Amino acid sequence: MTTIGNHLDGISNYFRNFTTSGAIAGINNRIKLIERQAYGFVNVNNFRERLLACFSN
């Protein structure tokens, strides 16, 4: 099966609803960035606090 065939549902959903997963991809990229910056944190609560601070208004 081709790549288009494997992702046909997602492709057709875009044209039906004009929605993308861009917001979720941005959130995932932000979390990965914080994970890289938090390398070496001994306490998991520090990582949690950093995530909460990043995504709070």
Please give a quick description of this structure.
The chain has 57 residues and is an all-alpha fold. The protein contains four helices and no strands.
How does this model look, in words?
The protein is mainly α and 57 residues long. 74% of the residues lie in helices and 0% in strands. The protein has four helices and no strands. The longest helix has 16 residues, at 22-37. It is elongated. The model has no long low-confidence stretch (mean pLDDT 86).
Order of helices and strands: HHHH
Strand coverage percent: under 5%
Number of helices: 4
Shape: elongated
Major sheet attributes: none
Helix content: over 70%
Number of strand elements = 0
Would you tell me the overall average pLDDT?
A: 86
State the low-pLDDT regions, or none. none
- The oligomerization state is single chain
Sheet/helix structural class: mainly alpha
- Could you tell me how far the N terminus lies from the C terminus, measured between alpha carbons in angstroms? 45 Å
Integer-rounded radius of gyration: 17 Å
For the structure shown, list the relevant keywords.
57 residues; 4 helices; mainly alpha
Task: Give the SSE layout.
Elements: H1 3-6, H2 8-17, H3 22-37, H4 44-55
